[in-house]
Specification:
Elements lengths: L1 H5 L1 H17 L7 H7 L3 H5 L5 H4 L7 H22 L1 H29 L2 H5 L9 H12 L4 H21 L3 H21 L12 H17 L3 H4 L25 H7 L3 H10 L3 H23 L3 H27 L5 H7 L4 H20 L11 H28 L4 E2 L4 H7 L7 H4 L7 E2 L2 H27 L8 H14 L13 E4 L5 E8 L2 E4 L4 E2 L4 H14 L3 E7 L1 H9 L3 E11 L12 H13 L2 E5 L6 H18 L20 E6 L5 E12 L2 E12 L7 H16 L3 E6 L13 H17 L1 H8 L5 E9 L5 H12 L5 H11 L1
Parallel strand pairs: 5-7, 12-13
Antiparallel strand pairs: 1-2, 3-4, 4-5, 4-6, 7-14, 8-13, 8-14, 9-10, 10-11, 11-12
């Protein structure tokens, strides 16, 4: 009851929709007379029945649509009303519903006047569709949502309406898209926020979520044809498997079409019997592989990129060949030839061929967000399964067809089977445009003819599942990571935990007592941190790693190491330079007294007045509400930067999910998250002796000084836990100025740091951390040869920004200016 009082319009709308449906027919919908009176169509427009623009938004066609509408209204309109209030929700529902019908009928009228094929085909369709104003209301509400949910809502609303229009193509599908577009414009006006198309900038996690959703929509698009009353969309042929039958044969087509039930016609019908299930299975298996690929995208599997893009591109190529080339070369069925006489046939072919290929290219362009690559062994196994499956299926069909040659009409030879072989693995929705050279007439030949395709695709599905399950983080195996983590738990450093993150490779000394996490970029093996573990002879172990790099023609670069390792490398003749300064707090002596602590004390007092408190937990212990807010704050930070998230030694949203990472979350009394921090562990002999600050982001409109408050609370917790140190980490490429003469590498790295400063604010971050009066611990880069400095500078930049695009580079240069 409380929720109904908060959403009175939603409750009233549900009551009206249900009452109207019960009165006019909840199962089969209104009678034809009522439909003509209240529905939107060109005839009503000609009769000046203007009320139909409104009444069409409250009637449904059948029980299935009623259930969908009630669910969409309860969830979508209810959420919109809670988000932007009752008055705005009523306005959004009324404006988008009427505007969608008015604009839609206007477009249909123009199409009919111009003789456009689609408009002429749907001119008699009467539309009853409450989903249009519901979709429009959600689109309006997206303008009032947070950045994360604004993007998700708009992606889902616009994406789903476009897919329905492309696959179904009914007037109601056009009205929903128009309602969504009008809703976006109205939301912009109500919030006074300019509606504009911006370049896509998002975190790795959010990009994976949206790409996975797009893959699911693309995979399920053909299924829309199953529930659609009619199929007028550009991409409806790609989903025609739900109604398509095998195309007629050259020998059987004419008698069936002209001579009635002749013997050839009987054999043709006999060849069709029992193939319905195989047709559907053959069409569904590629879609199932696409859905599995979408799951892989969600979990960062790079192999899923190639699976999804391959299926999508194959759809486009096959559509272009069978819908475009086959009719031209004279092998098309009569239906395809009749379709080819339409002036819009070229657009129809282009849409079916280009859109899937375009989707494949978009997916491929986002490879940098997917670090989990398959192991070489898993990739070889996948290729082996594919090759063996293709060989067995092809050989079985050719051999079996040769043995059963007499069970085909006409009798086939080996050449006929070989020419027909590729089409046994293609969904029938493509083959419907082509005449068949022969048809199976016996039971064994039908099982072979219709069964070989589903068997091959089943094997491919199994191969994809195995491949995606065995994908690993780029550069390492799970066992190597586990071994590295075990060494870190025994003897790690304050900056060594990022070595456990995705993207690293690992080197171990011969005794397996020391490990180094590194990345090979631009011919340089750049270490993620100092080595972990306690080797008997550190000098010998370091020498072995250097020899290992030399044998692979890599230039080793020890990045972010402490003075112990820098001194050792200097003794080996290497050069060193300070690349960052770690800010370290001693919990045992922590106190906030004196004038220097005034800013921090003010922030703590402000938090107490405003009811802001810090809670400590791991990601798994967060409530769904809190986790969503953390994701929103992170996404807003990425969107504002207009550049990709930095990686390498800086964690993002994915790294928060590690169960060893402690989260400090500041929230007010209403449960609104103000800021989030993550604290990486440092172990000594299996016991946590320190924590290092990594992830640090705050709500843009949150409490001033909230981050100072969170860090102060972290210091108090470290004091209570008896930790040896609390590290605020080191800001990359940010070093306090000194009087010493700078080296060439210092100048190169200084230039890089200056370039990134306007966007990422590393030096400002260092100044912020100095509020806590820490001691500064230098972090060094050690390198063997000054000749490698240019390659090393590029390697470090690409470690943080592995796939910086030309446009992103331009944005970076503009920031420097």
């Amino acid at each position: 009851m409380r929720r109904l009082r908060r959403t009175p319009f939603t409750a009233a709308l549900l009551a009206v929709l249900l009452t109207v449906a019960v009165v006019t027919g909840p199962v089969n919908g209104p009678s034809s007379a009522v439909r003509r009176l209240v529905g939107a169509d060109l005839a009503a427009l000609g009769r000046h029945e203007w009320w139909s623009f409104i009444t069409t938004d409250f009637f449904v066609d059948n029980l299935a649509q009623l259930l969908i509408v009630l669910g969409a209204a309860a969830v979508g309109v209810g959420a919109a009303e809670r988000l932007m209030g009752t008055a705005r929700t009523v306005l959004a529902f009324a404006v988008t519903g009427v505007a969608a019908s008015t604009l839609g009928l206007g477009i249909e009228s123009l199409g009919v006047f111009a003789g456009e094929y689609w408009a002429d085909a749907v001119r008699g369709v009467v539309t009853l569709d409450p989903l249009s104003p519901i979709v429009g209301t959600v689109a309006v509400a997206s303008a009032f949502a947070s950045v994360l949910w604004r993007r998700r809502l708009r992606f889902m609303v616009v994406g789903s309406t476009v897919v329905f229009l492309l696959y179904s193509g009914q007037p109601s599908d056009l009205y929903r898209l128009l309602a969504a577009l009008v809703g976006l414009l109205l939301g912009s006006l109500l919030t006074r926020r300019r509606l504009r198309v911006e370049r896509w900038t998002s975190s790795h996690h959010e990009t994976r979520v949206l790409l996975a959703a797009a893959a699911v929509v693309f995979a399920l698009g053909p299924v829309i044809t199953l529930v659609s009353h009619a199929r007028f969309g550009f991409l409806s042929p790609l989903g025609a498997f739900t109604t398509a039958v095998m195309p007629p044969s050259r020998s059987g087509g004419e008698p069936c079409a002209v001579s009635g039930p002749a013997r050839a016609c009987y054999e043709q019908w006999e060849s069709h019997s029992g193939q319905g299930a195989s047709v559907v299975v053959l069409a569904l298996l590629p879609l199932a592989i696409m859905l599995i690929g979408a799951y892989g995208l969600l979990h960062g599997r790079r192999a899923a990129i190639y699976v999804v893009s391959a299926i999508a591109a194959a759809n486009g190529v096959l559509a272009g060949f069978y819908f475009g080339i086959v009719p031209v070369i004279g092998s098309a069925s009569h239906a395809a030839l009749r379709a080819g006489q339409s002036p819009e046939f070229g657009v129809w072919i282009a849409a079916n061929a280009v859109l899937p290929v375009l989707f494949a290219l978009i997916v491929l362009s986002q490879r940098r967000h997917f670090p989990r690559q398959p192991r070489a062994k898993a990739a070889r196994r996948f290729l082996s399964i594919v090759v063996i499956a293709v060989a067995v299926a092809s050989g079985g069909y050719l051999l079996g067809g040769s043995l059963l040659a007499g069970q085909f009409n006409p009798t086939v030879g080996f050449g006929d089977l070989l020419a027909d072989l590729p089409e046994r693995f293609i969904p029938v929705s493509f083959l419907d445009a082509e005449l068949r050279d022969f048809v199976p007439t016996g039971l064994a030949s039908r099982l072979l003819y219709h069964g070989v395709g589903p068997l091959l695709w089943t094997a491919l599905l199994v191969a994809v599942v195995v491949l995606l399950r065995e994908s690993r983080s780029a550069g390492s195996s799970a066992s190597e990571r586990a071994e590295f983590l075990a060494l870190e738990r025994s003897a790690g450093g304050s900056m060594s935990f990022p070595g456990t993150w995705a993207g690293n490779s690992y080197w171990f000394n011969s005794e397996r007592s020391m490990a180094i996490a590194y990345r090979v970029v631009n011919g340089c093996a750049v270490t993620t941190s100092a080595p972990v573990g306690e080797p008997l002879d550190p000098r010998e172990a370091i020498g072995a790693f250097i020899t290992f790099c030399d044998s692979n023609a890599w230039t080793p670069a020890f990045y972010g190491v402490h003075e112990r390792w820098a001194r050792l490398l200097t003794e080996l003749g290497w050069s060193t330079t300070v690349v960052a300064e770690e800010t370290v707090i001693d919990p045992a002596t922590w106190k906030m007294t004196g004038k220097k602590w005034q800013d921090v004390r003010s922030s703590v007092n402000r938090a107490a007045r405003e009811g802001v408190k810090v809670s400590w937990s791991t990601w798994r212990e967060l409530s769904t509400h809190t986790a969503n807010q953390v994701a929103e704050i992170s996404e807003l930070w990425v969107v504002e930067k207009k550049l990709p998230e930095l990686g390498f030694t800086l964690g993002g949203l994915e790294e928060l999910r590690d169960p060893d990472v402690l989260l400090g979350i500041a929230a007010d009394g209403a449960g609104t998250v103000q800021a989030v921090t993550s604290w990486l562990p440092t172990w000594t002999d299996g016991v946590i002796t320190g924590r290092t600050l990594d992830f640090m982001r705050r709500r843009a409109d949150g409490m001033n000084g909230v981050m100072e408050f969170v860090i102060a609370e972290a210091a108090v917790r470290a004091q209570l836990d008896g930790l040896d140190f609390l590290s605020l980490s080191g800001a990359p490429l940010a070093v306090a100025p000194t009087d010493e003469k700078s080296s060439p590498l210092d100048r190169v790295l200084g230039m890089l740091g200056t370039s990134l400063e306007p966007v990422y604010g590393f030096r400002s971050l260092l100044n912020f951390k100095q509020k806590f009066q820490p001691r500064l611990v230098p972090l060094y880069l050690a390198y063997p040869d000054a000749m490698s400095l240019p390659a090393m500078a590029v390697a470090i930049a690409r470690c943080y920004l592995p796939e910086l695009t030309l446009r992103e580079s331009t944005a970076l240069v503009r920031g420097l200016r």
